[in-house]
């Protein structure tokens, strides 16, 4: 009588959904790591037998979890399991056939089947669409009944049982609070960052940290009197690269057109980064 009560322990819907997602993530991690190592050994051979390798890895994961323990890796993390009385040998074989074989056929269809197997491609596509529709319908049924969250489990009559004997699900609200705080902080940054003129701030800091040359005024006047000449080693005064569509200010320093126009559009009082000259109204092309 006690065993019957323990076997019929109610498993919350969220625990069942968590178990499914955890199992998918764990399976993907194991599969990707193994296949990545195998691919590094012989890429050419891996490309030829990739569907078979994937089938082997998926089968090994299935036998190591459901075949041996009677539960998926996700269920084991949440201390859940399938009802052992319903998990007969025939149901295990059907579970393997319905979960592993369709993935192999889909992988085979994507990599090897040619136009001569078009009928098989259409059959696989039809089966995939049918399975998707059944999954949606079964999910609504699961939300109502709270049992058998996947189509395969519904077809095979497999129920989840808890191995913790009515131990309630603990919720850590501190993690929820942390997520809310971070979410609010990111929203504030999203509102503030677009209105901050970082170019102007950087120029102000550069002028503050760097010492101003005593002969700045004389250098500006001398540069403005001389003819601006573009040499092979001339670089942009802003990006320090070869100038693209070179333009110069009245002080004589040469800029890329895009560097100069971008700075002026964001800061009307833009000063030359080399000498500090403010001559945005006197910009000429070379």
TrEMBL record:
Catalysed reactions listed for this entry: [E2 ubiquitin-conjugating enzyme]-S-ubiquitinyl-L-cysteine + [acceptor protein]-L-cysteine = [E2 ubiquitin-conjugating enzyme]-L-cysteine + [acceptor protein]-S-ubiquitinyl-L-cysteine
Record gene name: Pex2_1
Cross-referenced CDD domains: RING-HC_PEX2
An MF annotation (GO) of this entry: ubiquitin protein ligase activity
Membrane topology recorded in Swiss-Prot or TrEMBL: Multi-pass membrane protein
Protein's UniProt keywords contain Transport: yes
E.C. number(s) listed in UniProt: 2.3.2.36
Domain spans labelled RING-type: 236-275
Cross-referenced Gene3D superfamilies: Zinc/RING finger domain, C3HC4 (zinc finger)
GO biological process terms on file: protein import into peroxisome matrix
EC class of the enzyme, as a word: transferase
A Pfam family assignment: Pex2_Pex12
Species of the source: Zeugodacus cucurbitae
Keywords for this protein: Membrane, Metal-binding, Peroxisome, Protein transport, Transferase, Transmembrane, Transmembrane helix, Transport, Ubl conjugation pathway, Zinc, Zinc-finger
Superkingdom to which the source organism belongs: Eukaryota
Family, per entry: Belongs to the pex2/pex10/pex12 family.
Any Gene Ontology CC annotation: peroxisomal membrane
Protein name as annotated: Peroxisome biogenesis factor 2
Recorded metabolic or biological pathway in which this protein acts: Protein modification; protein ubiquitination
PANTHER family, alphabetized: PEROXISOME BIOGENESIS FACTOR 2
């Amino acid at each position: 009588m006690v065993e019957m009560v323990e076997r019929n322990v109610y498993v919350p819907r969220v625990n069942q959904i968590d178990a499914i997602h955890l199992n998918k993530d764990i399976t993907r991690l194991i599969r990707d790591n193994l296949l990545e190592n195998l691919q590094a050994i012989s890429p050419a051979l891996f490309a030829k037998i990739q569907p078979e390798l994937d089938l082997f890895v998926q089968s090994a994961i299935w036998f190591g979890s459901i075949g041996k323990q009677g539960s998926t890796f996700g269920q084991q993390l949440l201390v859940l399991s399938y009802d052992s009385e319903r998990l007969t040998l025939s149901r295990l074989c059907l579970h393997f056939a319905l979960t592993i074989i369709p993935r192999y056929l889909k992988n085979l269809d994507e990599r090897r089947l040619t136009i001569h197997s078009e009928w098989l491609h259409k059959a696989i596509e039809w089966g995939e669409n049918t399975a998707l529709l059944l999954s949606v319908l079964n999910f609504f049924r699961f939300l109502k009944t709270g049992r058998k969250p996947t189509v395969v489990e519904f077809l095979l009559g497999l129920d989840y049982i808890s191995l913790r004997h009515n131990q309630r699900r603990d919720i850590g609200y501190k993690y929820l609070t942390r997520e809310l705080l971070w979410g609010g902080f990111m929203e504030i940054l999203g509102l503030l960052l677009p209105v901050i003129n970082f170019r102007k701030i950087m120029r102000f800091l550069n002028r503050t940290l760097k010492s101003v040359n005593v002969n700045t005024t004389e250098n500006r006047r001398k540069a403005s009197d001389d003819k601006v000449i573009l040499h092979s080693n001339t670089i942009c005064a802003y990006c320090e690269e070869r100038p693209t569509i070179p333009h110069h200010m009245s002080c004589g320093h040469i800029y890329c057109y895009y560097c100069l126009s971008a700075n002026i559009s964001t800061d009307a009082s833009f000063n030359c980064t080399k000498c500090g000259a403010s001559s945005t109204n006197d910009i000429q092309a070379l």
